[in-house]
Amino acid sequence: MLWPALLVSLKTASVSIAVTFFIGLFAARWVTGMRQRGLKTLVDCVFTLPLVLPPTVVGFFLLFIFGVNRPVGRFFVDFFSYKIAFSWSATVLAAVVVSFPLMYRAARGALELVDPDLVHAARTLGIPEGRIFWRVRFPTALPGVAAGAVLAFARGMGEFGATAMIAGNIAGRTRTLPLAVYSAVAAGDERAARDCVIVIVIVSFVALGLLNFFLAREKHAPRRTRR
Description:
Elements: H1 2-32, H2 37-52, H3 55-66, H4 71-80, H5 88-112, H6 116-124, H7 129-158, H8 161-166, H9 177-186, H10 190-218
């Protein structure tokens, strides 16, 4: 039970963080560039909402959207002959949605702390905005962005409620480590549950170590100057 679940969890978390990293980064860049305070607040609330909703509620919304009898789910079945719900793709989808707010919030906070004088200096040199982002803002904010990526990866590894709702608990396909713990306890297999818990704790400790490392790096990054 341990190794198949660990493989599913690692595959899910790895693919989800690859997606979440770029979506969260560009969402943070977009929001930090907004000038309309009301719209900025609204978009921020929408992006952060999965963080405060119960995971089962998030899973219900995903099932409501991607279920085989729903327009989006039916579209994938009719045109691609692929059912998203209760497939491995659904585990990735659940992990992306629940981990996105962590990546987005960390990236936004890191980008907002970049010293604006650095950006202004780059603009006076005639550097295009796209290059300013990748050559000035992103490298300066990288420790905070990396910390968000670590949190998002750990969140993807530990997701339970949304995954159970949209992907189910199919051994070898959608059964992640948290679901394996639940299944082992339900079956009365304490040893299997213990092994899964030990692996989850080890991964969490590694994630916390990396998080502290990147947060320490962030303290030495150029900050926004107070005026």
